[in-house]
User: Which sequence fits this backbone?
């Protein structure tokens, strides 16, 4: 785990209509990540956006 993992633990994830998932960005706070996810979700596309937090071991933990 590196410094950016510790300082930017919140991820915005996008899933397209084919089930492919992509990391959109990493953020310092959940509020910041949620604001981005909400903004992208509000564009009316078929993609889904959500926020996840990186765990201590680098794995993601889903948050709604």
Assistant:
């Amino acid at each position: 785990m590196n410094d950016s993992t510790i300082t930017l633990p919140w991820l915005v994830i996008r899933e397209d209509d084919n089930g492919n998932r992509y990391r959109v960005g990493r953020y310092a706070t959940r509020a910041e990540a949620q604001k981005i996810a909400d903004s992208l979700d509000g564009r009316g596309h078929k993609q889904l956006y959500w926020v996840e937090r990186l765990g201590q071991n680098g794995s993601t933990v889903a948050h709604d």
